[in-house]
Amino acid sequence: MPRQQLQQQPPQQEPLKGEAHGGDANVVPDGDEAMEEEVDQEGYASSTPTSSLTWISWFCSLPGHEYFCEVTEDFIEDEFNLTGLNSMVPFWKEAMEMVLDVEPEDSLKIPDVSIVEASAELMYGLIHQRYILTRFGLNAMAEKYEAGQFGTCPRVYCLACHVVPCGRSDMPGLDTVKLYCPNCNDIFTPPSSKFQGVDGAFFGTTFAHLFFQTFPQFAPAPYYSPSGLSTSAVSRSPGNSTQPAFVNPNPHGGQKPAAGKVYTPKIYGFRVSERAKSGPRMRWLRLRPEIPGELDQVDWRGRWIGSDDDEYEEDDDEDGEHHMEDFDPVGHNR
Ligand SMILES: [Zn+2]
Known about the structure:
Helix content is 29%, strand content 4%. By secondary structure, the protein is mostly helical. Among the domains are: 11-136, protein kinase ck2 holoenzyme, chain C, domain 1 (Orthogonal Bundle); 283-332, no CATH class. The chain has a three-stranded antiparallel sheet with strand order 1-2-3, with no helix packed on it. A two-stranded antiparallel sheet has the order 4-5. Strand 4 and strand 5 (270-271) form a beta hairpin. Helix 5 crosses helix 6 (113-131). It is elongated. The termini are far apart. Mean pLDDT is 76; it is low at 1-46, 230-241 and 311-334. Zinc ion binds at residues 153, 155, 158, 161, 181, 183-184. Pfam families: CK_II_beta. Residues 1-33, 229-259, 302-334 are annotated as: Disordered. One of its GO terms (cellular component) is cytoplasm. This is Casein kinase II subunit beta.
């Protein structure tokens, strides 16, 4: 007996090598040992879900899988939704049986159940990327968003704005999941290392932005007044001074107020000049116009209204520079 134990131990203590797991499209049967090791490390090698739990709810309840919503079986069973995916997932049929909790037709064919688990995870992730762009998926994610299950932006002046998961690629195996903040329009690494095993492609590049288009009430308004002026009180748009100022019944146009404060670097209380070599360049990228009226000064092509230039290509630069003064950070803060 002792000898047998000795023989069995070394493979289990093999160091963990591969970084990517599950989300790797190149999963091949040859890599089953490494895959099994990784799965062991994740703590779901003995993964056969208990009878009452579906594979999908079990998968979504694993540590690190908190960002996933549960894809409905109807969606997975509709082959139209899976177009093109079967070429990306090895052991497609077996993975499908696992995800849908169908008894395998011929379990002898499967060399190792952990391979199918990796395929099932990849398959579920890729289906998930598509599902969260549908109405049902967006609603499911909205519920999680409202409950704060994706966490908050780490940037101080975003005032704990809720974030959504996103990917930097729609192809699996390239990058892990990131978090997008609608307030500062930037992406962040999730705060816990448990998310470093989750492929960003399982959320994709479109979801975050489609989400805030679909639910504008979750997105911060694109304007912000540091002085706290009522945004509806002022109308500065040129040319219609004779008309009564439009008063929006909803002060933020259906959106929530922005957390618009921008950090100001200071040395002994003096602002670091924007022209200093280490100065705060491009601060205006995070600034917002103070009143909604300023947003209406841009037409649908992004040109400033009232500009004399007819040439679209040319007025891009000149106009941009001229009106950049509106975004001068010095005027906006103390
Ligand atoms: Zn933010």
